[in-house]
Amino acid sequence: MTNTNREWLLAERPTGEPDQDSFDLRETDVPTPEPGELLVRTRYLSVDPYMRGRMRDAESYAEPWDVGDALKGGVVGEVVESESDAYDAGDLVTGEGKWADYATLDADDVAPVDPSVADPEAYLGVLGMPGRTAYFGLLEVGEPKPGDTVVVSGAAGAVGSVVGQIAKRNGCRVVGFAGSDEKTDWLTDELGFDAAINYKTTDDYRAALDEAAPDGVDVYFDNVGGPITDAVFTKLNLDARVAVCGQIAHYNDEEAPIGPRKLPQLIPVRAKVQGLLIADFATRFGEASERLGQWVASGDLKHRETVVEGLENAPDAFLGLFSGDNIGKQVVRVSAADAA
Amino acid sequence: MTNTNREWLLAERPTGEPDQDSFDLRETDVPTPEPGELLVRTRYLSVDPYMRGRMRDAESYAEPWDVGDALKGGVVGEVVESESDAYDAGDLVTGEGKWADYATLDADDVAPVDPSVADPEAYLGVLGMPGRTAYFGLLEVGEPKPGDTVVVSGAAGAVGSVVGQIAKRNGCRVVGFAGSDEKTDWLTDELGFDAAINYKTTDDYRAALDEAAPDGVDVYFDNVGGPITDAVFTKLNLDARVAVCGQIAHYNDEEAPIGPRKLPQLIPVRAKVQGLLIADFATRFGEASERLGQWVASGDLKHRETVVEGLENAPDAFLGLFSGDNIGKQVVRVSAADAA
Fold this sequence. Notes:
2 copies of one chain form a homodimer. In chain A, the strands form 3 sheets. In chain A, strands 3, 4, 5, 6, 7, 15 and 16 form a 7-stranded mixed β-sheet that branches. In chain A, strands 10-9-8-11-12-14 form a 6-stranded parallel β-sheet, sandwiched between helices. In chain A, 24% of the residues lie in helices and 28% in strands. Chain A has 340 residues and is of the alpha/beta class. Chain A folds into 2 domains: 4-125 and 304-333, Quinone Oxidoreductase, Chain A, domain 1, CATH 3.90.180.10; 129-279, 3-Layer(aba) Sandwich (Rossmann fold). The radius of gyration of chain A is 20 Å and the shape is globular. Chain A binds chain B through residues 53, 60-61, 222, 225-226, 229-230, 244-247, 250-251, 253, 256-277, 280, and chain B through 53, 60-61, 222, 225-226, 229-230, 244-247, 250-251, 253, 256-277, 280.
């Protein structure tokens, strides 16, 4: 083990779209774990759209990153030094770490990773926060019933791809919006979506929905916002449910963007629109992990990760989320299995 | 009893703001009740904002009015001829009638009016559809808890004025938006609202809310839409509930109006926004009528009606809703108590 560590810092708060100037890579010493802590070497680092919000100096659900501080995020890593009875060196764990080669994590805040269930990187996607978000967001906010039509935006992403498959398990017709033919093919050919719309090559989303969702929309799981959402709102059925999970189209906006007002459309159909944060379901994470793990292990729930190689490319991986570079979960491979 | 009847027809579908040209007054014969029906002489006719939607040729929750057909609406009237065992001539009833001097109503579709509880016109307001809408909309969609701050737009209207008083009964801080000093004075001095904002003389609604709702907004009961709603959405607290009851600012729009997108604001606070139609609570109307009747009879629940005289002025009364002419429920007095 080298004694050199690298950590990404927030160099400056971006205005509008972030770029490389927002990030700075610092060399530090590898930290030493305190009692109860683990020194973890990062295998995989998660980059997620919500992190754009942490780059703002504004109170929100996720604590803002301070300029000059190390960036945080979900990691899967190998314990290289343990000051806890709960884990030994060599164990694989997942938790909230840093954009870094090494970080110390409190043993109470990590969960074990079982490579017999799925590849370790899946613990940042289908078996991690995105999978749990899909599970509770769809089932608890979307409340899908057999025969319902479920529309998902960002359908080929880490959350959307799981939402659509759970909706299919629940007997729904599932329609996804995604940004390339490769993505829409994956949705329909591999994941079992009934229809998928390439929003970058489709001009008229309402007409596309007339064909893909001829009976209207009962559940809309929204990861994106913007014109896709405008179109879906015009197709909401009586008692429709909208889970507002993400609005990536708007994360770089500096003020509330302008669009068609949607509230008048809610009255005739009595639709329910609800903001969704996975932290609200924390007491039930065990249930989600168990179910998702069973479905992944049996092969019923398919998943995919887009891997960028090297900690030095973590900002690129993050920035690529906003242009839709990823299929499934975007992760950064920081070290290989035999590197610890 | 004269044999001449007058009925208002839909003369043409309005584009944008309706005017007198949308209405035509026709003379007809007084109808004859069939078995099971009542011939009812209208005392009071209700004009309501939702009727703007019935002037469109578009499927919605309320059946569209056809051009050339008599306009329908809530009435309180006196039975002048009964072909039913359930009511006798002289009884006062309320139900869905016509914008007319006389109409036949199915005895199964009317409810008795008890003038010992309140003046008959109150059965079109606090004891009728608007009162029930306030009751279920606030309690079931808004879910107010003691200590919550409840904001109501259209607060001096038939629904809003009841919402605010029920919220006060539930131990909430209540803030209303209304369109004149007479209205805001009524809210704070008579109805017990904690604060009221005159939206026609206030420039900065967000600053006004900072003062009137210093702890943020837990429940927003929206009758209006537009810039008031934009401001309230920026103040929503964690787990806030928004009941979208009306959007009168938009009923004359010919296409979806443009405004700030609100969905991104819902995620950090996990707010729930729900379209509300009173018909969904039809099986529980008895509960609402009983509670509202008790509160009105005891004087705890105050109400007010704005009365326009004469069936010939019914279109004016309707059109005045869009300029906010009414305080409390807008009704039209079609005949006096001794006129049948």
